[in-house]
Amino acid sequence: MLDSRLNYFAVMRSHMATALYPVQLVASFPKDMMGWFDSFFQTREDLAEQNRALQADNLLQSVRLQKLAALERENMRLHELLGSSFRLTERVLVAELLTIDSDPFSQQVVINRGKKYDVFEGQPVLDASGVMGQVMSVSRFSSRVILLTDPSHSIPVQINRNGLRSVATGRGLGKPLSLAFLPHNADVRVGDLLVTSGLGGRFPVGYPVGTISQIEHPQGKAFAEISVEPAARLATSREVLLVRPSVNAVSVLDDAETTETTETTETTETTETTETTETTETTETTETTETTETEAR
After folding, report:
1. Which residue, among 171, 160, 278, has the nearest Cα to 227 in the 3D structure?
2. C-alpha span between 78 and 83 (Å, rounded)
3. pTM to 2 decimals?
4. Cα 269 from Cα 242, distance rounded (Å)
5. Measured over all CA atoms, what is the biggest interatomic distance in the chain, rounded to whole angstroms?
6. CA atoms within 13 A on the CB side of 291
7. CA 134 to chain centre
8. Of 242, 243, 241, 239, which Cα lies nearest the Cα of 96?
9. Which residues, in sequence order, are CB contacts of 118 under 8 Å at separation 6+?
10. Are the C-beta atoms of residues 131 and 207 closer than 8 Å to each other?
């Protein structure tokens, strides 16, 4: 009690605490060591868990970035594709390639549009650069398209520069088209653009088909050998355009039929009126003749 008030032993207590500190430190060392080890391993596990979470998130973000890049390229292709359709007057339907025929002698692809979308046989198929081919068969949800390069496919074309008409025929995989039935003196130049001529009723006029890449004049043959590089990107295009019949063309046909029907009706009415008039005149003549004979009697 006296020491607590007067602090007679304060110096002694300080020396004793100093002397006992190493003993206290050694006594608490196991506990501190256990706490340090627990903290070390717990922190290491947390860091490892955070590292795994960051790696997973990084992988996910990388996949999303790749998908975003793919979507960006697809968006650019669609903009380019639809940009080409805005230059046309016909209605179009966008489709995507499903499969490519593995037969090297048959240049055909399958698209994801069919009868459900009013696709029909013979319907023109384009990409952003030009004519790809036409629909050859249709099912409910898909259609088979024959490409320009198929050896069995031909398309009527004309040279855009001078309107000279011909037929472009496919020659197989990786080969240019062949321009047939043009004599040696035909006005044809390398670099001339070929477009659809509209003959045959399948392709409307003016779609780009290809560019003349080579002209040869073999001896003893009546026609020149002309090679045409297709305008469409047949090997890389994924999205295509299906050209639908023009509404204006249908309206013109309907108007023409209506006009013909009206003219036919008017002609029929005129004929009937003429016949009625002739019949009336014949009847009046007969009655006049009978009256004259009666008076003569």
Report:
1. 171
2. 8
3. 0.60
4. 45
5. 187
6. 6
7. 14
8. 239
9. 93, 244
10. yes
Give CA angle at 279 (275, 284), nearest 5°.
150
* Residue 119 tokens, joined: 């696709």
pLDDT tens by residue, the chain, 297 residues: 545 555 666 677 666 767 776 777 677 777 777 767 666 666 677 788 888 888 777 766 765 676 676 677 777 777 777 666 445 567 888 999 999 987 778 899 999 999 999 999 999 999 888 899 999 999 999 999 999 999 999 999 999 999 999 999 999 888 999 998 899 999 999 999 999 998 988 898 888 999 999 999 999 898 999 999 999 999 888 889 998 876 544 333 344 344 444 444 454 454 555 555 555 554 554 454 454 444 444
Long-range Cβ contacts of 101-106 (<8 Å, 24+ apart): 104/172, 104/173, 105/151, 105/172, 106/150
SS3 content of the chain, % helix, strand, coil (to 5): 45, 25, 30
DSSP for residue 158: E
Cβ density class 247-271: b for 16+ within 10 Å, e for less: eeeeeeeeeeeeeeeeeeeeeeeee
Structure tokens at 32: 């501190």
Kindly provide the residue ranges of all beta strands, DSSP E only, lying in the chain, ordered along the sequence.
92-100, 108-111, 124-126, 131-138, 143-147, 154-159, 165-169, 177-180, 193-196, 208-216, 225-230, 239-243
Supply 77's token pair. Answer: 């292709």
